């Protein structure tokens, strides 16, 4: 037990310490309204605080509004932004509501996302294929989930499809045109007719013969290698739906390759992409493809090898 006299001494010292006058707590504040940074020390001043038993509150300093050219800059920036918006379909200048997108922007995003999903999981209009006289074969894909998870299945025709191609198509043509939905059935529905008819007209005008065209359900780009192995054409032209984005779910690409075979590497192909109403117009794309195919036949190469030989 602590000595009683010691307890009393400690208690007395504590009481004396508590009764001592505390130094004023002062802080340095940055006066940000001044042109040049300056500081002021502030602290508790009891004489000013205790007025009639109430604390005295200091008013906020009044600041004069200085003229600024920010308004003119904002108007100029707004004009530049409007020009950019006119030139792109990307989501720029859409604004926000607090930390969230605006309702209109969010609904448009959901709509475009739903359109992209529909493009991937949709089916090409059968009447369009009948109009263009394209018979249908399938790859090794059995359902859409397998198509998404196993791209390699979409690169080979099924046994039935391979047999049908051998029986129905002319062998060793100069150009073999094939069509596939790829990752966007909507791209085929929206663009195929114009691209296909324009391409055929262009090849006919150039005096280039074509083989028997057909449609491949759930095909990937490299399925053109399997077709090349079967029919041995000089050039294969694959019109295929591109992977949809949130800007366009109906974009088509045309892949071209000189004498493709199983094992062809990607650098040996070339592509004309972004074929849709908001990109390269389908009719224009078809006519252009004819001239590219003519060049491939003249040089006997495609892809990187064509660039080397051409230039």
Provide an overview of this structure.
- It is found in: Bacterial microcompartment.
- It holds the Pfam family EutC.
- The protein has helices at 4-19, 46-49, 70-87, 103-121, 126-131, 144-149, 159-168, 185-205, 223-231, 282-299, 304-310, and strands at 26-31, 38-43, 96-97, 100-101, 135-138, 175-180, 214-217, 235-241, 252-258, 269-275.
- The chain is of the alpha/beta class.
- The protein has a domain at 120-310: Ethanolamine ammonia-lyase light chain (EutC) (Rossmann fold).
- The strands form three sheets. It has a six-stranded mixed sheet with strand order 5-7-6-8-9-10, sandwiched between helices. It has a two-stranded antiparallel ribbon with strand order 1-2. It has a two-stranded antiparallel sheet with strand order 3-4.
- Mean pLDDT is 82; it is low at 46-51 and 69-73.
Helix content: 40-55%
Q: So, CATH architecture of the domain at 120-310?
A: 3-Layer(aba) Sandwich
- Name of the CATH homologous superfamily of the domain at 120-310: Ethanolamine ammonia-lyase light chain (EutC)
Could you give the order of the helices and strands? Answer: HEEHHEEHHEHHEHEHEEEHH
Radius of gyration, whole Å? 37 Å
How many H/I helical runs? 11
The strands making up the biggest β-sheet line up spatially as 5-7-6-8-9-10
Q: Terminal Cα separation, in Å?
A: 102 Å
CATH topology of the domain at 120-310: Rossmann fold
Structural class: alpha/beta
CATH class of the domain at 120-310: Alpha Beta
**Mean of the pLDDT scores?**
82
Please tell me what the overall shape is.
Answer: elongated
By DSSP, the count of extended strands is 10
